[in-house]
From TrEMBL:
Similarity comment: family membership: Belongs to the prephenate/arogenate dehydrogenase family.
Catalytic activity, reaction form: prephenate + NAD(+) = 3-(4-hydroxyphenyl)pyruvate + CO2 + NADH
GO MF assignments: NAD+ binding; prephenate dehydrogenase (NAD+) activity; prephenate dehydrogenase (NADP+) activity
Top-tier EC class: oxidoreductase
Entry protein name: prephenate dehydrogenase
Gene Ontology annotations of biological process type: tyrosine biosynthetic process
Residues of the Prephenate/arogenate dehydrogenase domain: 12-301
Keywords, ordered alphabetically: Amino-acid biosynthesis, Aromatic amino acid biosynthesis, NAD, Oxidoreductase, Tyrosine biosynthesis
Presence of the UniProt keyword Oxidoreductase in the record: yes
Highest classification ranks of the organism: Bacteria, Pseudomonadati, Pseudomonadota, Alphaproteobacteria, Rhodobacterales
Length: 317
């Protein structure tokens, strides 16, 4: 946290549109660090609004996104990707000149294209993406430490106001994150490799196992090894969020899935023809990547990491 953040909030009033895992975590982290003044939250259901207040995710709740956004200095869109444009259209007339609108969506090109047309002149649109999350969702899933030592990628452009950008950067840094800037198309390609296609593979592998389960009478589940269990964690991620990620990062996902399929065929061939040298060299290369991630301090898959499941009976956002 910076000295400025400790003495005065970076944003006097913040509107959180969507108070699930990411919106809730941002609020908890930003409030704990004294980065924000009043937090106005919007969620669609009364149950989520009540729970968000109870958990201290916000100071006021609003059934209307526009009402939450009115007079806000920062409006953070924390909804699934394909809800971003309708929400932006709804809040547009309420936005205050000089306000910053940002988001946390997992793909960046599509957000800008969908949201920018709705943002009035004089309001700063700076898309962003925290590279941090879990398989849980809803208000109970949020925790203040989520962004610590994780990357947040902002995708400003040549017209972005430097002061608004510096302020947003400081807010994420105050939440414990490291901030980088990227071109949206590049972001989408990188994330297709590091997040989106890995999720597609996990979903597929668990689907295959589920088909097998029908054949083997639950043995796949009963004897599932640690590797498969890791896949099931990823494949338990929110269906709405991931449907939207794949549909909004379609081109990059298909490009990387194509490359993945080529590599898989090469591996399949090496197994079929008994080419142990190929397999050994390939696995040696991939092991080095894992070691590089650990050395860079980016392995947060350590025990729990605050990723305890929501308590039973609590509302899904
Ligand atoms: N979960 C992750 O690991 C992760 C990580 C980084 C970024 N993201 C991105 O963050 C965003 C939010 O994800 P999350 O994990 O916090 O999801 P979540 O399900 O925990 O929360 C989503 C919130 O959006 C609200 N919402 C859903 N549809 C809406 C609609 N049509 N209109 C208004 N509100 C709506 C929900 O009520 C909820 O409050 C997504 O765009 C996702 O791509 C997620
Ligand atoms: O840790 C997890 O459960 C995640 O899937 C988080 C994860 C990722 O792929 O790393 C998922 C989607 C995001 O947009 C950012 C982070």
């Amino acid at each position: 946290m910076t000295d400025t953040a400790a003495s005065a909030p970076l944003y006097n009033r913040v509107a959180l549109i969507g108070m699930g895992l990411i919106g809730g975590s941002f609020s908890l982290a930003a409030r704990r660090a004294g980065l924000v003044g009043h937090v106005a939250g919007h969620a669609r259901t009364e149950a989520t609004r009540a729970r968000a207040l109870e958990l201290g995710l916000c100071d006021s709740v609003h059934a209307s996104a526009a009402e939450a956004a009115a007079d806000a200095d920062l409006v953070l869109l924390c909804v699934p990707m394909r809800a971003m444009a309708p929400v932006a259209e709804e809040i547009a007339p309420a936005l205050k000149p000089g306000a910053t609108v940002s988001d946390v969506g997992s793909a960046k090109g599509a957000v800008f294209e969908a949201v920018a047309p709705h943002i009035p002149e004089g309001v700063h649109l700076i898309p962003g993406h925290p590279l941090a999350g879990t398989e849980h969702s809803g208000p109970d899933a949020g925790f203040a430490e989520l962004f610590e030592n994780r990357w947040v990628i902002l995708t400003p452009n040549a017209e972005t106001d430097p002061e608004a950008l510096a302020r947003l950067r400081a807010a994420w840094e105050g939440c414990g994150a490291n901030v980088d800037e990227m071109d949206p198309a590049h972001h989408d390609l990188v994330l297709a490799v590091t997040s989106h296609v890995p999720h597609a593979i996990a979903y597929t592998m668990v689907g295959v196992a589920d088909d097998m389960r029908r054949v083997t009478q639950s043995e796949v589940i009963k004897y599932s090894a640690a590797g498969f269990r890791d896949f099931t964690r990823i494949a338990a991620s929110d269906p709405t969020m991931w449907r939207d990620v794949f549909l909004t990062n379609k081109d990059a996902t298909l490009e990387i899935l194509g490359r993945f399929t080529e590599e898989l065929f090469a591996l399949q061939r090496a197994i079929r023809i008994g080419d142990g040298d190929h397999l050994h060299a390939y696995f040696t290369r991939t092991r080095a990547i894992r070691r590089g991630i650990i050395e860079a301090g980016q392995d947060t898959a350590a025990p729990d990491f605050g990723r305890t499941p929501p308590k039973p009976g609590t509302p899904k956002a």
